[in-house]
Design goal:
This is Molybdopterin-dependent oxidoreductase. By secondary structure, the chain is of the alpha+beta class. The protein is globular.
Length: 477
Amino acid sequence: MGDDGRPPASRASGGPKPPADEGHARERLRRARATTAALIERAAAGVRAVARRVGQTPPPPGPFRPEFWRSPIRGPWLTSVFGLVLLIGIPLIFITGMLSYAAYNPDLGPLNDQTPDKGVLGFYLFDWPTHPYWLYRLTQGVHVTLGVTLVPVLLAKLWSVIPKLFEWPPVRTVAHGLERLSLLILVGGVIFEFVTGIFNVQLFYVFPGSFYTLHFYGAWVFIAAFVVHAGIRLGRMRRALRSRSLAGELRTDLAHTRPEPPDPDGLVPTAPQAPTMTRRGAVGMVGAGSLLLLVVTAGQSIGGRLRESALLAPHNRVPGSGPNGFQINKTAAAVGVTSAHIGRDWRLHVLGRGPALVFTREQLLVMRHHNAALPIACVEGWSTPDQRWSGLRLTDLAALAGLPNASSVLVESVQPPGPYSSVVLRGNQIHDPRSLLALRVNGADLSIDHGYPARVIVPANPGVNNTKWVHRLTFRT
């Protein structure tokens, strides 16, 4: 030790030396970074070399050649008109779709959550309200009806930009390749979302997995690509829309229809043919197609006299049809509910604090009943008018179970285990005075297909969560 109490080596160097392992780690990190940079540069050089070789070869016959696309009305202005409609409509479809997911109260647990691996994508979820009672009928009706109505606009937009999908060479630079990849995600995403959504509306369950999971993740992937694309193209779209007057185009006849000036995106044909349709005709045809789809779809959500025009609705269109006078999604037989499940031996079990309470249907019928006028609204976009339900309030049953302030209830059906044979309801749904364990509807006993002996009906609740054939209620705090 030296006179100052420090080891000589430490005193001579002015402080402790860094460990040798730390120096080696820094050197390894420097080498790894250099190697990674070299690999990236080598890959980029390879892409550039391939692009040069492909670019030096003539495009193959067909759609890869610019002269293949000859429609004189195709160009930035028409593309921007369709794009503007989608720029307004698609975010509204996305928002109402996310609200539909929130309406299932997925954060209550696995029984309600059809997309358990959503992670941070569920950041926006909130307690779904029961006021106004027609909320889900509105949001899901808008979601489905608008989605169907925009199909002609979507197809027209894809037609207007289809030359971009056949650019030659396919990849010129790394940046161009990334742009092409984003375009592929955008086009593939929008087709996937619209096709799966329409199939589900028509009750075509042909998905290689859960529709909810596929549609949910597909929506987030698509909307991310959509936002990026819109941000990049917004300035060009604004300039294109200003380049021509809408009123002027609507007055232009076939004889005076001319191609737009050449554009950097290659949408305007290099060798246009004589026009066979005006831009006015294209916009009118697409608008008429959307209007037709609106007429044959909206009635299933709006109801009234329009219900008869809902030709695309997968359910009965005539008011007053079906058991108890309104439509159903699935019959008791379709989900495996038989007379053995709901016959003389059926009992309602109510659990909470203390011993379980067990009731026959006859005992439930002599208890104090309450009435509520509520619709059934389903994820497929269809809904019924308000039906006159009669039964026991869920909040009264919670009090009977010893939990007057219950924060949730597990509702279980006699239906064989499967999706939505059980559901969890929130406290606000329990304590809404219109939330019932219904025994009768429209002045008659529930039919078997509508949930006899008892079913749940809750304001603003997705139809599939208004569980039918209930045999157990477990109230919890």
